[in-house]
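Researcher: Can you fold this with flavin-adenine dinucleotide in place?
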Amino acid sequence: MRAGSIAVVGGSIAGCAAALAAARGGAGRIVVLERTGAQLRDRGVGIGLHGDRYEELRAAGYLTPEMPWAPLSRRVWSVRDGEEPRGRPVGEQPFPFRAYNWGSLWRELRSRVPEGVDYRAGAEVTEVEPDADGVTLRLADGSHEHFDVVIGADGYRSVVREAMFPGTGAAYSGYIGWRGTSSDVADLPSDGDHACTVVFPGGHCMIYRIPDGFGGHRLNWVLYTRPPRSDGLHPDLRTPASLPPGRLSSQLTGHLRALVADNFPPYWAAKVLGTPADTTFIQPIYDVEVPHYASGRLVLIGDAASVARPHIGGGSVKALQDATALEAALSTRESWEEALEAYDAERGPIGSAMVALARRMGGAQVENTPDWSAMGQPEFDMWWQAQNEGSDGNSGFGGHALKGRR
Ligand SMILES: Cc1cc2nc3c(=O)[nH]c(=O)nc-3n(C[C@H](O)[C@H](O)[C@H](O)COP(=O)(O)OP(=O)(O)OC[C@H]3O[C@@H](n4cnc5c(N)ncnc54)[C@H](O)[C@@H]3O)c2cc1C
């Protein structure tokens, strides 16, 4: 396999990690094809990584201490309580996470892609044609190229996945994440060491501090709820896609702002409602599952392979773990087929388990919320435990433990 060629479709978090895995796995020629021109747009939003998962990925050489992060220690779930500024806590739990900024995490991963890798920005793959000894990729500019193996790191609307398993598209959960960031980090409880979750009938909002990538911090929040059922919504919400800043309909933002004003404790309402409109956007929430992570000479990684709803806090962890597993399989197996089968056997079941747990969490935290205002710590603990039911000690929240292999 050492002389072989690998193309990675998509150059985001999973794509950069896949290029690193392919290089360490011994591929002779590696090309990354990323449709976005120049730098990927800095989404600026937060990514939470569980501390234990970070340590495993650091030991595996995919994350480094230099990547800017902000520590989180506890998660406090609060409900509005009249005019009490920060509301009433209904439950608290340990939250040993590291908060990253998507942009600086991507830039660090991009800088770890070995120099010999040909990273082509502005290269959109339009067709994926497998044959007996490899795969031909056709690009939007009319060119085509043949590779021994193609890794699909092209996110939830993957063209590689569609070539492998036609029709296994992203399934809309029925609700959205409204996300935003602001510079208003003054005066945060516990000096920003706590993640706050504001709860309300029909959803919740997670608020925490992230690095700004320049030595300071930003406030990051994501609110999950069903959009209003009305015909006036942006058509994208009926065939879900991300709505970037500036494309939110005034009707939808009006609905979300009213929801915050009515349901959030005053302190958190001011933080969210004070967020500049140009840093807010909407991401419909999906489930993606595949029968296998590999088929012939095609293989999937990150969100292209499976998407678990974000309540699990483990999508980036899963993408990076997928890469470590791919590296191990490429390094230790004799043929492409054996390597890709071994990768599928290891990562497929974990992807499915994460989707299932995240679906249960979405059910409990958005679709069928409890009467939060009647809850205290004991009721909260039972409610949380019920979502994690059926799992072993390693529930999968924040991502599953990485199998030791080094
Ligand atoms: C609301 C929300 C909150 C989240 N919070 C967390 C969190 O706290 N912790 C966490 O670990 N994860 C979180 N995640 C998940 C995390 O963002 C992703 O799982 C992770 O970034 C992996 O993404 P990816 O690289 O697989 O896909 P993407 O980032 O979607 O990248 C796919 C890339 O492929 C490119 N591409 C697509 N099609 C083509 C094509 N045809 N040709 C060429 N290029 C193409 C795209 O331009 C893009 O750059 C969250 C997700 C959401 C929606």
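Model: Folded with flavin-adenine dinucleotide in place. The first strand starts at residue 5 and ends at 9.
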